[in-house]
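Example 3.2
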Amino acid sequence: MGARLDVHARIKLTAGATATFVLDRVEPGELPLPYSDDEIAAEFDATVAFWRGWLRRSRYSGRWREMVHRSALALKLLTYEPTG
């Protein structure tokens, strides 16, 4: 059995404070790439835009719209594109 490759982090924030971080896979012997706050913010904005666009394709507009959309997001996030 191979070595465990766990990741652990502890970030303490005070009320109203924010923090950004990047979880990236780095091969043995490689150094992680540095990311600026602007790059992280741009990736976050692109991710939010993608998921909002994905939800806009929904045709459901009933009483439970928010819950249906949250459930759809959860199910979508549980899928793995190459294998479905």
